[in-house]
Isohexenylglutaconyl-CoA hydratase (Halospina denitrificans), 270 residues
Amino acid sequence: MSALPECETLKLETEKGLLHVTLNRPDSRNAMSLAMVHELREVFAAIRDETEPRAVVLRGTGGHFCAGGDVKDMASARSQKVEDGEDPIFELNRAFGRLLTEVESAPQTTVAVLEGAVMGGGFGLACVTDVALCMEDAKFGLPETTLGITPAQIAPFVVRRIGLTRARRLALTGHRFGGSEAFWLGVVHDFAKSGEELETKVAKTLERVRHCAPRASRMTKELLLSVETEPLESLLDRAAADFAGAVRGDEGQEGTMAFMQKRKPSWAEE
């Protein structure tokens, strides 16, 4: 793994092919400041072309995931003048959208561990991860319209996650809900009633990630994310070429041999 950037708003920890990224602004319930956006983008840029880590775990400190955008940053941007056609508010908002795109398209498997506040920008960040697990008493919502603003960068990712009809209700009523409803809506994939149960579910998820071949997982994620944007015939042609390469590749040969020999493949032995 290449060197990770120095961060002030994040805690970074690596172990066994994993990168743990913890949002670390507990005094503001890990509100998403512009500095945090930049640091998260730097972290994902640093690992994009790396084979390690195989998975990224996103969570927050102080009992919360993320309470949304930082109001102080928005107030600061509002007080700045628009110069040469560049609007500070536009740039602040658009930077967060770029972060969401980069996290969603990261080749690593991303796992969100959600506690406490999962609001606004935190909700959007959860919606671009591959696997999301939460506490039953976590608090989710899109409160933007109740504040006189719009969920501008978040909305497309929420729609893709849970569908247009459900997203319309959440965004246009400011409805707030807990972990069990988040599971029912499809925001998260599972929820837990206690911290111990949540950690057990996280550990089991990461164990399953380790059982999947790293290169095959990256190719599969790219394939899945291309379904909505690439014409079907060209997508299937590319998928067939990738499949042929995988079967002939080291992982395909090792996986087949391990299955026949009734043992774990090499990538699952860490």
In short: The chain has a mean pLDDT of 94.
